[in-house]
Amino acid sequence: MNDLLAVLESVLVEPWGYTFMQRALVVGLVTALVCGVISCWLVLIGWSLMGDAISHSVLPGVVIAYMLGLPFAVGALAFALIAVAMIGSIRRSGEVKPDAAIGIVFTTLFALGTVLVSVTPSQTDLNHILFGNLLGVIRSDMVQVMALGAIVLVFILVKRRDLTLFAFDPMQARAIGLSPRFLSASLLVSLAITVVVSFQAVGLILVVAMLITPGATARLLTGSIWRMLWISPLVAVVAVLTGILSSYALDASSGGMIGVSLGVLFGITYLAGPRGVITEAVRRRRRGGARARAVAA
Description:
single chain; mainly alpha; ABC transporter involved in vitamin B12 uptake, BtuC
């Protein structure tokens, strides 16, 4: 018993005594809260591909910021907003379907980013931009994430009722005096900032996991948007804590472990949740058994 307690302490308690783990925890939790909240509306509106597109589109901005000696967040935010503007412009033209517009913009910008990475002389391993380096964040990164995360959270929570109405019934939103175009643009800008917050934790490749999986998991657990707003960030927080501790213990990619943790939580919910595959099979079997007993009686 004492040996088990010692192992649990070394795995669950001791890591938090290191400064780099404390910074990782702060950045991870802020990322989880922001992504968990905005994930709800992305899932409800059907903007999963948009989150993926913006997360890939910021790569050239990050590389250019590195070349100019600027904080990565500056370049990432600039290109995230550029991507949003380009996608919106192409979609409004009506000549190209929305999914095609998203695909064209994000593949072009991501390709530009890979070219810049390949030709940029660097003493720094830029791969952490793609796959995250949560255990290596520095104090300035932590401050940036906290500031940007606070901006997004405050805006979304203030506008939560308007955004919810926009997600379910844009026509009704317009009828009561709201502007669906403004709400759409505001949510896209918030998404762009969230991507900048998230890539510090999980990298550009896995940002979409943080943006979509928590909301999708919460959707399987409840049909209420207000409950989703609690459940989704909680799922993200659990995944971040599990991923950080797992990456520390296994000396593995922190972003990768967070992505795996999110996938496992979704898988468990999909199979054994209130509306899970196994749960529904058990209910059908019980209903069948009850009918059989009723007939026999």
